[in-house]
Amino acid sequence: MIRCDWAGADPLMMAYHDEEWGVPAHDDRTLFEFLTLEGAQAGLSWMTILRKREGYRRAFAGFDPSTVAGFGDGDVERLLVDTSIVRNRAKIISTIENARALLAVQSQSGSFAVHLWSFVEGKPLQSARQTLSDLPSETPVARALSKDLRGRGFRFVGPTIIYALMQACGLVNDHQTQCFRWRQLGGEL
């Protein structure tokens, strides 16, 4: 079975690649989880974040935006000593602020998913990347979405983070063309 080069040989990374990465996500909780994890990953490896994922789920109430939006200073202090997550004050506070911003988007657009997917006209962008070097770190769509989210009060949403979110949540199919998942997720030559 041929996978994207980045999937490597670690069972956790391969499972993530095979079962999640690039699968279209339309659930606000899932999108909030990936927004949080992609922001937490800034400056770190994705493997570090995957290994801490269950800790994040526990620490941030299963990524329920309504619950996380209600977190206060005491929660920030509690999370700063929680070794099951990345203990970075700015990243923790951004997760809480992003939950609040997400709730505002929900009240305006009906759902966070509807808002995000509007940037790709409701369907995954299909790329045809042959090699890892073909993968961009950002795109015009990611830059536009990043700018929109920053304007709405989201943090840790630069274009590179947003493009990673788009890839993870299937707004773009960036599996390499030789990867078995590329065709499964709509890719064709």
Explain briefly what this protein structure is.
With 189 residues, this protein is mostly helical.
Task: Outline the fold blueprint.
Elements: H1 11-19, H2 28-41, H3 46-59, H4 65-69, H5 73-80, H6 89-109, H7 112-118, E1 125-126, H8 140-151, H9 159-168, E2 172-173, H10 180-184
Parallel strand pairs: 1-2
Helix pairs in contact: 2-3, 2-6, 2-9, 8-9
Helix content: 55-70%
- Under CATH at level 1, the class stands as Mainly Alpha
Binned strand content: under 5%
Supply the helix-strand structural class.
Answer: mainly alpha
Question: What's the arrangement of strands in the largest beta sheet?
Answer: 1-2
Number of domains: 1
Uncertain stretches:
none
CATH superfamily: Hypothetical protein, domain 2
According to DSSP, the number of beta strands is 2
> For the report, how would you describe the main beta sheet?
2 strands, parallel
Describe the structure.
The chain has about 190 residues and is mainly alpha-helical. It has one domain: Endonuclease III, domain 1. Helices cover about 55% and strands about 0% of the residues. The protein contains ten helices and two strands; from the N terminus they run αααααααβααβα. It has helices spanning about 10-20, 30-40, 45-60, 65-70, 75-80, 90-110, 110-120, 140-150, 160-170, 180-185, and strands at about 125, 170-175. The chain has a two-stranded parallel ribbon. The longest helix is centred in the middle third of the chain and has 21 residues, at about 90-110. It is globular and about 50 Å long. The two termini are about 20 Å apart.
